[in-house]
From TrEMBL:
Residues 199-356 form the Acyl-CoA dehydrogenase/oxidase C-terminal domain. Its cofactor is FAD. Belongs to the acyl-CoA dehydrogenase family. Residues 91-187 form the Acyl-CoA oxidase/dehydrogenase middle domain. The keyword Flavoprotein applies. Residues 18-87 form the Acyl-CoA dehydrogenase/oxidase N-terminal domain. This is Acyl-CoA dehydrogenase. InterPro entries: Acyl-CoA_dehydrogenase (IPR050741), Acyl-CoA_DH_CS (IPR006089), Acyl-CoA_Oxase/DH_mid-dom (IPR006091), Acyl-CoA_Oxase/DH_mid-dom_sf (IPR046373), AcylCo_DH-like_C (IPR036250), AcylCo_DH/oxidase_C (IPR009075), AcylCoA_DH/ox_N (IPR013786), AcylCoA_DH/ox_N_sf (IPR037069).
């Protein structure tokens, strides 16, 4: 249940050394791709709400991949098996009170001790999903000067670690996902917990963005579908003015507009899943970064429309936290969690255009050289 959260292809050699050769349904670990990832995320989000799935999946999906891709063999062998078996948990800790989408501005520091055996980590992390019950965090820290060049990634022990204080944050939605505020006060972390090399943190963080944003987009698209499906079911049975609500043209109009938006988004997501399955990781990062950011932003807009439509059609039932409209009320409350985390919407829109322009100019330059 945990392994399908990882990027494709899976760490096959590691899994087989652990005696894991198949996933749910008999799928061989060698054959796992983003098509299977998409099915898994869709099924996990069939509830429509993010909390339960996020409580199980987010740390695995985002905290482990940098270790798998860039961690030393010693770090991988020491940390990954117990995470894969579910014996311990991990989270990704990037965001800070004053640095969200602007990753290059984080201030949490990691300074080597005089003996050279430890990093001394101090700072704050905020809105960290799964943090409160995680044994480790894949954490962005500043090991050098300002800007992206000074960032590194470090596996920081959390639960039971001296100098670490964690408190659960109250959020409007996703209450079971363990959103956490982490205080770090001179936390001693072995230098062997460094992922990759110092100064490569930004590169390692961005490498996993396509996987992260695709997972969010698939999940949010499913939530939009659950909200709209719930609204359809309700207006088919709910009667007003002597007939089911579906008989009213204004109701059909609302459903049609949201349905068109949802089906367009769903087709786009399928296209991105196909491309992620066929492209190499390096080509996918280069070609799909802008598209993935745009799709993530669009998914937030569509779930907003679908959830709002559902609440309005449920009427008073959609405004209460119990009864027939309980689910759509919850989905509507979680709309900000679709539009902000994983890169806030405005940042994603800007990133998408900048990335697309960058790729266009690079390819235009290549074409110009070919003509010469």
């Amino acid at each position: 249940m945990l392994i399908p959260n990882l990027p494709a292809p899976l760490p096959i050699d590691l899994l087989k050394r652990m005696g894991i050769h198949e996933l749910l349904g008999g799928l061989k670990v060698d054959d796992f791709d983003y098509f299977h990832f998409s099915i898994y995320i869709n099924e996990m989000r069939r509830l429509g709400i993010s909390g339960p799935a996020s409580s199980l999946a987010t740390g695995m999906a985002y905290g482990m991949p940098p270790i798998i891709t860039y961690g030393s063999k010693e770090l991988q062998d020491r940390i990954l098996p117990e995470l894969i078996r579910g014996e311990k948990r991990i989270c990704i800790a990037i965001t800070e009170p004053d640095a969200g989408s602007d990753v290059a501005s984080i201030t949490t520091t990691a300074i080597k001790s005089d003996c050279g055996k430890f990093y001394i980590v101090s700072g704050e992390k905020k809105w960290i999903t799964n943090g409160v019950w995680s044994h480790y965090a894949t954490m962005a820290v500043r090991t050098a000067g300002p800007g992206a060049q000074g960032l590194s990634l470090l596996v920081v022990p959390l639960l039971g670690q001296n100098g670490v204080t964690m408190r659960r944050m109250k959020t409007s939605g996703g209450t079971t996902s363990g959103t956490t505020y982490i205080d770090l006060d001179d936390v001693k972390v072995p230098v062997e917990n460094l992922i990759g090399k110092e100064g490569q943190g930004m590169k390692m963080i961005t490498t996993n963005f396509n996987h992260e944003r695709l997972g969010i987009t698939i999940a949010v698209t499913r939530s939009a579908r659950v909200a709209l499906s719930s609204a359809f079911a309700y207006v088919l049975r709910r009667e007003a003015f002597g007939a089911p609500l579906i008989e009213q043209a204004v109701v059909r109009h609302r459903l049609a507009k949201c349905g068109a938006e949802l089906e367009s988004l769903s087709a786009w997501v399928d296209q991105l899943v196909y491309q992620m399955s066929k492209l190499t990781k390096s080509d996918g990062n280069k070609e799909l970064g802008g598209q993935m950011a745009l799709a993530k932003a669009r998914a937030g807009m569509v779930v907003d429309e679908c959830a709002r439509c559902a609440v309005l059609l449920f009427g008073g039932n959609g405004y209460t936290r119990t009864g027939q409209g309980e689910l759509v009320e919850k989905i509507y409350r979680e709309v900000p969690a679709a539009r902000v985390p994983g890169g806030s919407e405005d940042v994603m829109l800007d990133l998408a255009v900048r990335q697309l322009v960058k790729n266009f100019q690079a390819k235009l330059k290549v074409l110009g050289k070919q003509k010469m």
